[in-house]
Predict the structure.
Amino acid sequence: MGRKAYEVLLFAHGWYRSLLEGARISHGLASIIIRNGKVVTSLENFEADVEIEDGVITRISRSGLSGHPADRVYNAEGKLLLPGCIDGHTHFEMPFMGTTTADDFLSGTASAAAGGVTTVVDFAIQQSGGSMMQAVEAWKRKAVGKALIDYSFHLIVRDLKATDTEEISNIVSAGVTSFKVFTTYRKEGLMLEDGGILDVMRRVGQLGGLVAVHAENNGIIESNVEKFLKENMRSARYHRLSRPQEAEREAVQRAIYFSGIAGCPTYIVHLSSSEGRNAVKEGQLRGLPVFAETCPHYLIFDDSVYDRPDAANFVMSPPIKGKEDRAALWEGLREGVVKTVASDHADFDTHQKSLGKDDFTKIPNGVAGTEVILPVLFTEGYRKGRLSLNQVVQASSTNAARAYNMFPRKGTIAVGSDGDIVVLDPAKKVRLTQENLHSKIDYSIYEDYVAEGYPVLTVSRGEIVSEDNQITAKPGRGVFVPRSGYMPHKSPLFD
């Protein structure tokens, strides 16, 4: 079956349509027409007018909709109309390493909206000794009344002793079908032992869900950290050196083996190295349902940033690797081994980063990034000839919608889909300074970077949430997007 035919079949599927219609909520404008733009989906490029009514795309006309009234008409001549981006990896208001990320669901989704993101998938963290359902409910409380755009969750499993794998079915029934496990951060209480990871994968695979893996070898990291601290090597540079390529490759390979044993679709989050890319590719060539995401910071920078005076601002895990790794990740996107680009948005301000000024192990790990996904993909991917426009859409929207079972409600511009559209002006240049971005933090790691092509309008379910870099949405208009499990082993992303 061709991809188009599959999309039509999936969209018409009764249970899926019922799920979507029950979740639709419209706010703001009753109707909007975007005229004269170039529509770009994962498969096609064409000139058209697009009409959105009550939050849903109702008409797409290549001959124009000039005679149709609307509450707002936007002239997109010379601009691109892309499906709203889906950032599948954010950490808003997350407690970590003795502090909490600077952005909550208000400032975080404001940053996302300004960058053309219309849906985020955040990580609900099971507390030690707590149930998984308690984690989901706690994260819903964080988002309600704040989120400007739509949201869903992955569930981080950290304590199988406090519950059992049967509770995973309750989480899936609650609309959360993706789970995350860590192969590192033992001292922080996030790491799950191999047997626990396999148990989670087996149960999630049976239910038609996905398991995300933070893949770094904990033993390698802890051994290196102990050595560096003993030798009084404490600067941010040693964070990078403590987590080499081999630590990622080994853990990626292990996760892929577990995926094969359990029959569970698996995605490797924030892939950072050529070795990791090669391991994912090898798994795919063996026919295993594994894919990877990478992040904008790995596509822009190399590890020379750890020699800068502000090196602490670039400390995240996995750390940024070498120039050859950056090139390998772009190649992974081009050939489809790396399917998505997500932000891993977990930002900390200068004061928080200074907690590790004398010890790299105390620098809170994470950077901002949800606002720059599309500008980076367009500038570094499309403008520099690494990716086609369709591949930009695949990496920023459609593949994530497929992977997280939100397609075709999200991830495309089609009649019946949510009115989630970003209008990108290819001629607009913006320096990604702290002043021009919307995160709460007091710096930007992209301060010297100029994006060539930038979102000028972001529409979420028919409501303009950002226009000309100004946030126009009211807090709390975003809604939770429930997801259902796939038939086991049948995620469309892997067909």
